[in-house]
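Lab notebook, design round three. We kept the backbone fixed and only want residue identities now. Task for the bench partner: fill in a sequence for the structure below.
Input structure tokens:
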């Protein structure tokens, strides 16, 4: 009997990373690259390469982004991974780059979701406890 598929080395869908490294220390660069690697490991993705913008650009076209678009045209590329949307550039540039990534038929994966998705707790929902296993009681009369 053959072992289960999980026992065979299987490469996950290929993704390419994109980092914006304008005025970033070597330690920060290493931490960002490590976050992409860990995300891919935990989501069974194959990080095939990382493109990095190192200069401020006034538009969506940069050498790194053009290179990224070139590899997205290769067969069997699943998408692009970035630590956060801000790594695609300022808001207008990021929106255009996202549009181009999606137009290439690829997905944009973010290690850290946009704040609106993270901070969607309504005012009427319970306040999260700072200590697991404890309940915070609020006085409704105060």
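Proposed sequence:
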């Amino acid at each position: 009997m053959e072992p289960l598929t999980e026992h065979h080395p299987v490469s996950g869908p290929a993704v390419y990373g994109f980092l914006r490294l304008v005025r970033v220390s070597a330690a920060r660069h290493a931490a960002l690259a490590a976050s992409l690697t860990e995300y891919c490991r935990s989501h069974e993705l194959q990080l095939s390469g990382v493109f990095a913008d190192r200069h401020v650009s006034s538009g969506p076209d940069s050498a790194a982004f053009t290179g990224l678009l070139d590899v997205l045209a290769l067969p069997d590329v699943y998408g692009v991974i970035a630590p956060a949307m801000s790594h695609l550039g300022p808001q207008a540039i990021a929106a255009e780059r996202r549009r181009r990534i999606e137009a290439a038929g690829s997905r944009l994966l973010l290690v850290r979701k946009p704040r609106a998705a993270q901070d969607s707790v309504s005012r009427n929902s319970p306040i999260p406890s700072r200590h697991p296993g404890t309940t915070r009681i609020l006085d409704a009369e105060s």
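Keep this in mind before ordering anything: The first helix runs from residue 26 to 42.
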